[in-house]
Structure prediction request, 160 residues.
Amino acid sequence: MHKKIAIFPGSFDPFTRGHEDIVLRGRLLFDEVVIGIGHNSQKQRYCPISLMIEQINEVFKPYDNVRVETFVGLTAVFAQKIGANYLLRGLRNTTDFEYENSIAQANRHVNKELDTVFLITSPQFAYISSSLIRDIHKYGKDVTEYLPYELPAYEDLMNM
Ligand code: ADP
Prediction:
């Protein structure tokens, strides 16, 4: 039997407790979960990729079937490259559903072997989004309850 590998792609800017929840549940369904940080040189990030890799590695240190990688270009092509036949995504609400529905069709178009699997967000994380956290953090407010690690202060982050 082939190993069941799932790619969990995203910007993870930053990686949140909502993301962590999807990975922890996903690792019980698949042999391996690869967190793929999509890298777009045109798009300015809030949290440097190197910092996210470091923190994600630390969070999932106890689990040997979770790892993190970065990629550029199409998710469906990256999935093929790492031998992933499943694409894992989280669904928070109907807005997510509308968006995810079309992405899943497009990914399937690019890579026929790729099936998207959705996990419904745990209710306590349903309102968490990376953009919300960026907004709160930028103004110096505490975001520790949304993250499974410590984020440096805004000024330090901008100097990284
Ligand atoms: P993208 O830029 O591709 O939307 P994100 O980093 O925002 O990437 O999210 C990656 C995945 O995690 C998406 O499937 C998204 O729906 C899911 N996600 C985001 N926030 C949460 C949350 N609070 N709970 C569960 N899943 C979430």
